[in-house]
Design brief:
This protein has helices spanning 2-15, 27-35, and strands spanning 22-23, 46-63, 66-73, 76-85, 96-105, 110-114, 124-129, 132-137, 141-147, 151-158, 169-175. It is mainly beta and 178 residues long. The protein has one domain. Strand 7 and strand 8 form a beta hairpin. The longest helix is centred in the N-terminal third of the chain and has 14 residues, at 2-15. The N and C termini lie far apart (50 Å). Residues 1-39 have low confidence and may be disordered.
Length: 178
């Protein structure tokens, strides 16, 4: 009977899964990432791409060079790439992740932004780990974006001088219909 009390909550938790809007890379892209770490997800973590439709990226300045980003209602696409390195088993609060966010007009079929022009797409780099958070506008790098009726692809090479970073080059092609 005690086993039933243990298994019932576990069963209920796994049986009730809410739908997700997360869009993962195609298998081909994942294979390219595994073969060439500099163009994708590092081997020691997992990566995920989320596309938010009808949204915009709002940058909130708190003063003293402190800021953060929010995805809010809008008319654009917000693309969010996250790298997660999980903490070793038994270590609390040891996860580390980096998120790169940018916003493109829903009508854009292709665009290229470089260095200071990356602010046109609100390119934000954030990292979290060891109970710290860091957000920074990216102004050094190059973003190439292309959208077809069935795919979104982008290549981003960037550098954040104010902090160290694990991910600096992302190449993704995602099946996506708008």
């Amino acid at each position: 009977m005690k086993i039933l009390y243990f298994l019932l909550p576990l069963f209920l938790a796994t049986a009730c899964k809410t739908p997700s809007e997360k869009i993962n890379s195609s298998e081909k892209t994942k294979m390219e990432q595994l073969q060439n770490i500099s163009n994708g997800c590092p081997k020691d973590g997992t990566c995920e791409v989320v596309i938010h439709k009808n949204k915009k990226l709002e940058i909130v300045n708190e003063g003293n060079d402190r800021m953060y980003s929010q995805v809010v209602e809008g008319e654009n696409l917000v693309i969010e790439y996250t790298y997660l390195k999980s903490a070793p088993k038994g270590i609390a609060d040891g996860n580390y992740f980096e998120t790169i966010q940018f916003e493109v007009p829903v009508t854009a079929e292709s665009l290229v932004k470089e260095n200071k022009n990356l602010t046109d797409v609100n390119l934000i780099f954030s990292k979290f780990g060891n109970r710290t958070a860091f957000y920074h506008r990216v102004t050094e790098g190059k973003l190439s974006f292309k959208r077809t009726s069935k795919t979104i692809s982008f290549n981003l090479q960037f550098k954040v001088n104010e902090t160290d970073q694990v991910v600096s080059n992302i190449t993704e092609k995602i099946e996506f219909e708008y």
